[in-house]
Amino acid sequence: MSKPPRLIFLLNSAQRRLQQFIAAEQERAARAGTGAPSPAQSGVLFVLAKEDGATMGRLSQALDLAPSAMSGLVQRMEALHWVERRASDVDARTQQVWLQPAGRVLLPALAKALGRINDALFDKFTPSELQTVARWLEHVQTLGDTDD
C-alpha cells in the first residue's frame, strides 16, 4: 500500500513557489518600466475591469480578503491613482471603487504576465487533471466554513 501524498506540505510549498514565481513576473514588469502591482492589487484591477464600480464588499468577496484588508489595499491603490473610491448614489454608506486610466493602462501587461503564469501552471496537465486540482482546491477553501 502506497503512502498518501503529503498534501499540507505540498500545498504550502507550492504556495511559496508560486509567490516566488509571481514576484519574478512582477520584477520583469518593473524592469520593463510598467508599474508592478502586487497580486492583490492586480486582482482588484482585474475585477474592476469586468465590474467597474464594484462595492468594497464585492471586491472583498471576489478576492477572499477581509474588509479591513480591502480598505487598506484600495487606499494604497488610490494613492497611486489606479482606482477611485466614491460613495454609492443609491446608498451613501456603501463605497464603490472605480478603475482609473492609470490603472486601466496596467491591465494588458498584467494579463500577459497572468498568461505566462497560467501556461506554466497548466503545463503537462490534461484539462481533466486540472479540473480535479481545481475541485480539490475549492474544497480546501471551504474547510472550516461549517458550523459543526
UniProtKB/TrEMBL annotation:
Transmembrane segments: none
GO biological process: response to stress
Pfam families, per the entry: MarR_2
UniProt-listed PROSITE patterns: HTH_MARR_2
Residues annotated as domain HTH marR-type: 4-142
GO molecular function, one term: DNA-binding transcription factor activity
Name listed for the protein in its UniProt record: MarR family winged helix-turn-helix transcriptional regulator
Organism: Scleromatobacter humisilvae
